[in-house]
Amino acid sequence: MGALAACIIKGIERVTPILKFDLQRLEVEIHGVRQDTPPKMESIQYTIKVTSEESDHRLALLHDNVRKFGTVFNTIAPGTELTGTLIRA
């Protein structure tokens, strides 16, 4: 889950200059459910909280970018129920 949070943060740091996205603060909360036998993550839920004056459309674009281009995100997604939101803090 730490790798997923780092992937989300790094992805946002990478894309904000490209999109000329004004971002003052970023926070990621992650909660997961682990299956014991066989060991794996059953589900992971995340919330990305951003402080920004950007429009809701631009926030959605940022979230789409995280889901589309995150290496760890896309490694986890096929085998785990991975859901989340990006909200304005």
TrEMBL record:
Gene3D superfamilies: 3.30.300.20. It comes from the Bacteria. Pfam families: OsmC (PF02566). This is OsmC family protein.
